[in-house]
Amino acid sequence: MRTYGQYCPIVRAVEVLGDRWTLLIVRDMLVGATRFNELSRGLPGLSRALLSRRLRQLVHAGLIVRTDDGYALTRAGEDLRPLVFGLADWGARHAFGDPKPEELDPEVLMWWMHGRIDTSALDKRTVIQVEIADRIRKYWLVLEPGDASVCYTDPGFDIDAVLAADLATLYRMWVGEIELLDAVRAGLIDLTGVRWVVRGLPNWLRLSPVAPSVRAAQEPARH
């Protein structure tokens, strides 16, 4: 590992965390990813070989440990939470803006969304078809009591609701820049289907963990 040759705790931290993808791996673990394939699906630009190398480095640094079915953060890893979400606060205030085309991956968004749906109120299977018009793509969120999954091909179940929008609008909703119901009222997002699903989805979908940072950064502009 390349070092900076300075005796300073900031330098030591940068030497551990400054490699490309490292903080994003920690970010995903802080919000619940524990398995290699989960991390890989959430970071598609990261090769599996490099992911393996970064995980070994994090184990060596004492930030994560191997478990029977994946990885877990240590106390040192958990202590990065305020740093990582402090970066979210700073980024939302000083480095955020309109999404760039190369930042918008529909499969990553669907993967993130399915992991943030609260299914505790469900008592039967519920299927939401997500239509992304500008990409001519469809995805299916299959919600079961206590579980949620995303399908990239038609699972063959009856559709209970349809959520339709362009990809950039869905991302803006996901990060908390716009409210789902506000976007529906404005005609930016279409949400149709059986009433209890249409009414329930805004409560079930918990949005991105960085949504509070994005909303807080927007507050000065609202006043």
Commentary on this structure:
By secondary structure, the protein is of the alpha+beta class. It has helices at 9-17, 22-30, 36-42, 48-60, 75-78, 81-94, 106-114, 167-174, 180-185, 195-204, 211-222; strands at 64-67, 70-73, 126-132, 137-144, 147-151, 161-165, 190-193. It folds into 2 domains: 9-79, Arc Repressor Mutant, subunit A (Orthogonal Bundle); 101-212, SCP2 sterol-binding domain (Nonspecific Lipid-transfer Protein, Chain A, 2-Layer Sandwich). A 5-stranded mixed beta sheet has the order 5-4-3-6-7. The longest helix has 14 residues, at 81-94. The protein is globular, with a radius of gyration of 19 Å. The mean pLDDT is 95.
CATH superfamily of the largest domain, by name, is SCP2 sterol-binding domain
Specify the number of helices. 11
Series of H and E elements: HHHHEEHHHEEEEHHEHH
**Strands ordered across the widest β-sheet:** 5-4-3-6-7
Mean pLDDT: 95
CATH fold topology of the largest domain: Nonspecific Lipid-transfer Protein, Chain A
Radius of gyration: 19 Å
The number of E-state strands comes to 7
Number of discrete domains: 2
The helix fraction, in percent, is: 40-55%
Strand content: 15-25%
Described by strand count, sense and barrel closure, the largest sheet is: 5 strands, mixed
- Globally, the shape reads globular
Q: Assembly state here?
A: single chain
Query: Which class of secondary structure composition applies to the elements?
Result: alpha+beta
Q: Low-confidence parts, pLDDT < 50 over ≥5 residues?
A: none
The N- to C-terminal Cα distance equals 48 Å
Question: What would CATH call the class of the largest domain?
Answer: Alpha Beta
